[in-house]
Input
Amino acid sequence: MTPRPGRLPAMMVGVAVAAWLLLAAAPATADAGLTLLLVAPWLPVAERSIGGRGWRQRSLAALLLAAAAAVALANLV
Amino acid sequence: MASAPLLLAVGAVLGCAGAVLGVGGGVLLVPVLHLVFEVPLRIAVGTSLVVVTGTAVTAAAGYLRRGLPRRSLAMELEIGAMAGALATALVAPGVPPAVVAKLFAGALVWVAAMMWWRHRIDPGSDGAAVGWRRVAAWSASPLAGGAAGLLGVGGGLLQVPILRLLLGVDMLRSVATSTLTVGWTASVAALVYWRRGDLDLDAVPWLLAGTLIGGAGAPAIAERLPRRALESAFGLLLLYASIRMWGSS
Output
């Protein structure tokens, strides 16, 4: 069964917010919740980089994903 | 910062208003955090970027399900938008808060004008732009990203006119495509604010939960409200907030 487009990222946001609210006392929860939240928008791009229509769309998605990953690494590592 | 129930309620009201009126959440959230809760402007912008990311993802899910966003176009424009967002997010600490406040005041007037403009423009048919229009759109995208990185507004307020007026994408697809890019742009800028500690991590989940609840309830409420009157009243509120922002910081 093919998942509905955009469903997984939206679920990730829901899980991130719910966990953040329920486990607010745990120090790592905010970081984990925020990480999930900021990764969620990029799932459709990752999906396009593998299953996009034609090499042009796949390359564009891969380029964008690489740029976002580079920004994340530069900021978080 | 305010108590959790108050933040939840504020998020719900802003999420509902944003969805009913078709304006991005950050446009409403930043002035409320800064002017009402007296949060420093840079923290308000960072906090707003995280909330905008979450709301854009859930809104984009609905559009993706209906196949509305032009994904390739969104990714093309995002390259410039991401560069713009990153640049302004990085230089934000060096920009005086008074300058950011004045730019935000201008953005509020722009949003009020956009609400007026959207109903008067031909919704258009979906077309493909070529030549100088495409180059102009690529050139303008960093501005949209730059607005997101500095003002915490997501960038949709510039992406929609770029898509509709320059690239000839019909109105509904323009909004859907812009919503998709807003999540990407805001998340990149939010990373930079997070690293600097320019976020209120205690407020984010409450505001975001409220915004999601308010956004979900918006369609039912929108049907019962006189839309034009609501837009006029909201336009005046935006102009008032613009004046307050101009004089703040």
